């Protein structure tokens, strides 16, 4: 396993590994110039092999849940590996987060980064087709971490990649994230049933615990088991959408998320960190009214998400 360290003149230090394309650490300055690691992770790539959580990893072939671990495509039913009861989550038992990719660093005039490549064989975790994948992390002098995804296939197959870093802008181990203030650019979300499978409905956030259309502390109205919900982002189009902003009042650290994706999953788990997983909607393979996740031969899967880190002095 290899690790790569990237640094910006703005004070960010990003450390990544080719195992799962994992972001192992991200050192960021606070308003006083003190740095802290703002993602959960381990010091050694080998430690990630023993943690079932996809800490900091790229998720694939399909992020989120697929109901009953199956879908029908062009008249043929495909059975995927179940790994949460009878359902399929985040690519199965050995998704892209548990794969050793091939990494190659690069540097430009004002950027540095790493390109990771992986070929997912036909039938892996039940998915049809051989998928050629590429994920690029680019660190800019504007303190942006740009994540670009690209894929092609030789057979029709679902593809829905995301980045699964667990953030805590106070710093790793510095307490919970309930005091972080969050804005999500979404009027609607996709409700879940008791097994956390989307119902197919698209509902308004108005009057619910999921309404972050104005800056609100994450802990203001947390649902019983924490947040684990997909948002339907406003302003969907061919370009980047401002999906979310997070501010941490004590340190002054901020995070803005822009994406080409139509959705974003907010996950808080036990409250020690939060995830903002840009993606297509969960279980889209079984809901024809959702934006399609099917990639076909002769076409390219392309997606971009930009995480921008800053400091607020207010």
Describe this structure as you would to a colleague.
The strands form 7 sheets. Strands 10-11-12-13-26-22-21-16-19 form a 9-stranded antiparallel beta sheet, with no helix packed on it. It has a 5-stranded antiparallel beta sheet with strand order 18-17-20-23-24, with no helix packed on it. It has a 4-stranded antiparallel beta sheet with strand order 1-2-3-4, with no helix packed on it. The chain has strands at 3-7, 13-17, 22-29, 35-37, 57-59, 65-66, 70-73, 76-79, 88-89, 102-107, 111-120, 131-140, 144-153, 157-158, 162-164, 181-184, 188-190, 203-204, 216-217, 228-232, 241-247, 253-259, 263-267, 275-279, 294-295, 301-311. With 314 residues, it is mainly beta. It is 0% helix and 41% strand. β1 and β2 (13-17) form a beta hairpin. The radius of gyration is 19 Å and the shape is globular.
Keywords:
0% helix, nine-stranded antiparallel sheet, mainly beta, 314 residues, five-stranded antiparallel sheet, single chain
Q: How would you briefly describe this protein structure?
A:
The chain is an all-beta fold. 0% of the residues lie in helices and 41% in strands.
């Amino acid at each position: 396993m290899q690790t790569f360290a990237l640094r910006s003149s703005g004070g960010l230090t990003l450390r990544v590994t080719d195992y799962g394309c994992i972001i192992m650490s991200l050192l960021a300055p606070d308003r006083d110039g003190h740095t802290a690691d703002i993602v959960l992770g381990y010091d050694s790539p080998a430690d990630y092999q023993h943690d079932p959580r996809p800490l900091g990893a790229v998720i694939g072939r399909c992020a989120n849940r697929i109901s009953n671990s199956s879908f029908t495509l062009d008249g043929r039913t495909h059975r995927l590996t179940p790994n949460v009861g009878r359902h399929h989550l985040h690519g199965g038992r050995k998704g892209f987060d548990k794969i050793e990719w091939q990494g190659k660093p690069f540097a430009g005039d004002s950027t540095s980064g790493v390109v990771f490549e992986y070929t997912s064989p036909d039938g892996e975790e039940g998915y049809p087709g051989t998928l050629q994948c590429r994920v690029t992390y680019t660190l800019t002098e504007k303190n942006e971490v740009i994540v670009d995804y690209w894929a092609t296939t030789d057979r029709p197959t679902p593809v829905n990649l995301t980045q699964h870093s667990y953030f805590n802008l106070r710093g790793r181990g510095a307490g919970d994230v309930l005091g972080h203030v969050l804005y999500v650019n979404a009027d609607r979300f996709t409700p879940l049933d008791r097994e956390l499978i989307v119902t197919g409905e698209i509902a308004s956030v108005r009057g619910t615990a999921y309404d972050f259309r104005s800056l609100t502390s994450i802990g203001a109205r947390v649902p019983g088991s924490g947040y684990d919900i997909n948002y339907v982002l406003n302003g969907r189009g061919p370009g980047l959408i401002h999906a979310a902003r997070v501010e941490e009042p004590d340190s002054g650290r901020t995070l803005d998320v822009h994406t080409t994706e139509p959705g974003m999953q907010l996950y808080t788990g036990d409250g020690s960190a939060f995830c903002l997983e840009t993606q297509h909607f969960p279980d889209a393979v079984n809901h024809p009214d959702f934006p399609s996740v099917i990639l076909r031969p002769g076409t390219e899967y392309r997606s971009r998400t930009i995480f921008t880190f800053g400091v607020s002095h207010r």
